[in-house]
Amino acid sequence: xxxxxxxxxxxxxxxxxxxxxxxxxxxxxxxxxxxxxxxxxxxxxxxxxxxxxxxxxxxxxxxxxxxxxxxxxxxxxxxxxxxxxxxxxxxxxxxxxxxxxxxxxxxxxxxxxxxxxxxxxxxxxxxxxxxxxxxxxxxxxxxxxxxxxxxxxxxxxxxxxxxxxxxxxxxxxxxxxxxxxxxxxxxxxxxxxxxxxxxxxxxxxxxxxxxxxxxxxxxxxxxxxxxxxxxxxxxxxxxxxxxxxxxxxxxxxxxxxxxxxxxxxxxxxxxxxxxxxxxxxxxxxxxxxxxxxxxxxxxxxxxxxxxxxxxxxxxxxxxxxxxxxxxxx
Length: 329
Prior knowledge:
Layout: E1 4-10, H1 14-25, E2 32-38, H2 45-50, E3 58-62, H3 70-80, E4 85-88, E5 94-95, H4 99-109, E6 113-123, E7 129-132, E8 151-154, H5 155-163, E9 175-178, H6 179-184, H7 196-205, E10 209-221, H8 234-248, H9 255-274, H10 280-293, H11 297-316, H12 320-325
Parallel strand pairs: 1-2, 1-4, 2-3, 6-10
Antiparallel strand pairs: 4-9, 5-10, 6-7, 6-9, 8-10
C-alpha cells in the first residue's frame, strides 16, 4: 500500500503533461502511486499518458465519455486511490522535487491535520515565473500568506476568519490531504462547476487542523484556458453565494468578518442585478441568496449601485466639445 496517491486529472493539456508527470515521478519522497485520468481529451494527451504505462507505480484510466466536471474526476481519482494521503496534481501545473517530502512530514507529525498546503509560484504557459499565486489574498490579510513563516491552526477558526470570505488554498496542486477526511467531507460537490474546490477545502478544514508552508514548492500555471480566468459573470456569482451560504450554515463569523464579507460580495452582485444582460430568473436567484446571507442588503447596495451608475454614465456620455469635433467638415 503506497503512503501517497497522486491523481493527475487531465483534459486537453498535452503540452504540459510530461512536465507535470515527470515532476511527480522525480519527487524525493517515493512511497507513492500515480493515477493518471483522462476525460476524453481531443489533443495528443492519450499517447503521452500511454507512454508511462510501463511504470509499475502508474495506473491509467481513460474515460469513454467526457464527464463534463472537474470534480467528478477528483472523486473518481480518490475512489481509485489506495494511499493514506492524496495529492490532486492538476495536469497543467508542476512541483518542486521536495514538495511531497515536506508536506507529508507535516501530516505525519500531527494526525489532527486534515490537509497541508504550501505557497505557489505563478508561472506562464512557457514556464516563466510571474510572482506568487497568492497575490489575490493580500486584501484578505496583507501579512498572513506573504510572511516567511509556517502555521498550523484549528480549521474551524480558519473557516470563521478566512474560508467564509474566499478560498485561501490558491491551487489544488499545492495541497496534500488525508483520504479519510476527504471521504468524511463527502468528497467534491459534483453539482458545482467553479467553486467545488472552495467548498471541499472548507469541509475538510472543519474536520481538523489546517497547516501551511510558506516555502513555494508548487508551480501554478496561468494560461488562456485556466479555469480561474473564467470565474466571472452571474452564474458564477450565484454559485459563489451558494457556497457562502453553505459555510455560514456551519460556522458563525464575528460581526466584523460578516460585515466585510457582505461588503465585498455587494461589489460583485449589485452590478449584475443592474445589468440588462443578466436573465431575470438568474437575478432572482442571486437576490434570494444575498438575502439569506446579508441582514442589510439594501444598505449595502447603495455605494456599489452609485459606482455602477457612474461607470455606465461615463461609458455612454461624451462631452459636447468632443461630439462637435467628430462632426464632418
